[in-house]
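Let's see one such:

===
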Amino acid sequence: MKKDRKNGSPGTAARRRTILLGQILFGVLLFGLWEFCSGRFFKEFWISRPSLIARRIYELALNGKLWYHLGATLQEIMIGLIAGMAIGVLLAILLAYSGVIQHWIGPYILALFSLPKASLAPLFVVWLGIGLASKVAMVILMVVFVVFYNIYEGIQNIDPDLDSMIRSFRGNWRKKLKWVIFPSLYSLVLNSLRISIGNATIGAVISEMVGSSHGIGYYITYSSSILDTTGTFAGLFIIMAVALILGGFVSLIEKKILHKS
């Protein structure tokens, strides 16, 4: 039984292969159509070509610029993502069990959540400079509200009988966190992390485009300023690859947790 659970049924494996094959074929069709249409139906200057974009990424990797810019962006994403997740989870737990205080503060959190966050990037540059701090602050802002609302709603939906059981055994807060809150929320935390990866990436790129001398967002802005369509698309594809890879890591973590449970 344990072996079947880890490897999955033959039907499940076949379905995964079918999905993977469909994804590859769709990508080949999409990029092949793009390559064919560029220069024939659309000017190459407007949309570049997948072959040119791949060559540019390869050249950036060879001359070291890819790793220089990518390293800066990944640093901003990882620090901001970890901090934003921690702040969001902690804030949600504290507010959910704060009694009437959550009703006092709730409308202000909703008002902050409704702000167009991209418009705050220039303010972070003014307040914190063009260094790492302003980029991390922007990433945290993009992450924290998503995590907060997911976890807060999850806590509201925890079975009240579990709370009653802990109280009947005179359980303290540490036991309540260990036996009630964390087991009920780990799937929500992972889901919040998966969603937040995209938001964190957007936040890092936006902040780099507003004010920076390195990072993928800076490279995209620089390429656009000199009308380098290929360079702009190269930066966009690198960002998408980063989001996909990080999302894949989260999926692997989730599978390992499910296998252990």
About this structure: Confidence is low (pLDDT under 50) at residues 1-7.
